Amino acid sequence: MKPRAYSAALSLPLAPGFAPLWNAMREGLEGVLEPHPAPAVLREELALAHREAYLHHVFNDGLTRAETLRLGRPFGPETLQRALHSAGGTLAALEDALRWGLGLNLGGGTHHAYPARAEGYSLFNDVAVAVAKARAEGLRGRVLVVDLDVHQGNGTAAFFQGDPTVFTLSVHAQHNYPQRKEQSDLDVALPDGTGDAEYLAALEPALEHAFASRPELVFFNAGADVLAGDRLGRLALSLEGLAERDRRVYRRVRESAAALVVVGGGGYHPNLRLLAAARVQTYRLAVAELWSVARGG
């Protein structure tokens, strides 16, 4: 049995310009996992985390011009559908993680959305919704969010401030978006141009601290926008450095015996082949490092 990986790209028409990246990813993941269409999250599932007034506004009124500017992309039915399937893919991956120990969403990681507002390409916060869904279904153990996207997970931090059962870690570029950062349980802000050695040296103690919380469930935002040359990133990791980042996260997960959900996070590199290679290696490494362990093999 191969692990499943969910993608909104199989649920909806491809976004303009996305086909080359998606085709390269499918080719790179062939034989390693089974791509599945990401289902749409239900409104009542969103309401487990997001405020009802916000959901009513989004579904019935749409976003105002000012709210659209904060989102950073045009809002319309297509934007809403993509957000619903992106979050639904994370919920489907959560089900796999709770059953098998490993769940994979090729999208998701929309960590800038707050309980009552959209921001930074993020209409709904898929990880916050998934945590709320897990709680609603009886999960009582501690949860850890390892957010290694190049941008601080400000929305996720805001969702869980004051919640002692969820530990949030964000390792990000200090001078990148968002300008106003929220307070995670642990924030590691890195200077522009940070490369492999410096990044990994900062990551290791951060992971040690975060996993000391003894999580039962881990969400890993595996943003590829830490790569050198990313259009919206300020860090300078190589493909090899990114692989070592992922290995260190997976090693900690394996040692903790926690269930893991991997979400895609950001990636805006102009070299689509490099971006596809980065994304593919994150998921291939997850399967290689954790799938047999997750299933008790």
TrEMBL record:
Keyword Nucleus annotated: no
InterPro entries reported in the protein's UniProt record: HDAC_classIV, HDACs, His_deacetylse_dom, His_deacetylse_dom_sf, Ureohydrolase_dom_sf
CDD domains, per the entry: HDAC_classIV
Any GO BP: epigenetic regulation of gene expression
Organism superkingdom: Bacteria
EC number: 3.5.1.-
A Pfam family recorded for this sequence: Hist_deacetyl
Gene Ontology molecular function: histone deacetylase activity; hydrolase activity
Enzyme class: hydrolase
Alphabetic keyword roster: Hydrolase
Chain ranges of the Histone deacetylase domain: 32-271
Protein family (similarity comment): Belongs to the histone deacetylase family.
The name this protein goes by in its record: Histone deacetylase-like amidohydrolase
Organism per entry: Calidithermus terrae
